[in-house]
Amino acid sequence: MRNPTGATVAILLLLAVSILACVGSRPEPAPATPSPIGTPVPSTPTPATRALNYSNSTLGLSLWYPDIWLLEEMPDVVAFASSSRLMSGEDWETGAAFAIMVGEMESGQTIKELIQQLLEESAFDDVKTTELQPVSIGENRGVITDLEATPMGTSFQLKGFVAAVEHNRKAYMFMGISVKEDWAEYSGTLEAMLRSVRFSEPSGIFTSEDLGLKMWYPQDWILEEQHDQVVFATSYDLIDSGNLQTGAALMVTGSSLGGAFLEDWFEEELEALTFDEGGITSDVAPRVIASQEGLIVDVEGRPSGADTSVTGFVAATAYDGWGYLFLGITAEDEWTRYAPTLERMLDSVQFIP
Question: How many independent structural domains does the chain possess?
Fold first, then answer.
């Protein structure tokens, strides 16, 4: 998950920067010590009655929000605010905001640990919370805590809640806050937004029962699927010719580990990738894939039998006795253009139990 930058999303610096840093990080062993501030949001909220008027196919959710509010969208993040001055960070003297952030969870990490770490590492001073309580979010069981805090470097106080839920092995974090003096005015709206959340399957999802995984891919890409392999590419010519003169591709293969360690299996797979020029250009490094421990190396050069040079990565992980190999490459001078897409595809991988 990427951290937000730029003045146009200054509101997220208050709402979400800590969450974005925490998601995917291992939790500290000691939980945060809550300071009671009042009655938490009920764990069984009343069903939403307002029509859903916002949908995000990438995040895979829909919700209701006041149609006079503004919204800002970024990869893995969306924020709603009651005014443009609040959205830009120019004015925090009145109003309210609601933010949603989505990211991968570490293997073994729980939603409770994630939200506790968020509160410990947040960009707020004088943080007071309630005990974590169960809450229904999109018909999934999550947790929620009430919050009072002062943003660092300011003197005004905020009041609201932070909630989290796991859905399709991703962490969904929700924060609804207002200036403390305005909480009575905006609390009902923020709680209604949280209650209205409904999850859906993100668009552009590839699912393979043979490989035992699903993953996102750009809808304007094409794919060619075999029993134990799938190739995603920016054009049919790339798949037919095997030459990457322009564009990008991601190949996914799977095979039995045969009792071997992932490191040994990965080494054998790398030896099978031959280059007429260039080859592996980095040391093997750790890389989390689908919440599993994995490995990755960089590659650059001209593959054997190809006419053009490529740049990219080879990654691997293991799940349920199988080894999975991911080869993401672009034309030599187009890595900057396609690298974010290839990384997002790798981040989106989920194994099917």
Answer: 2
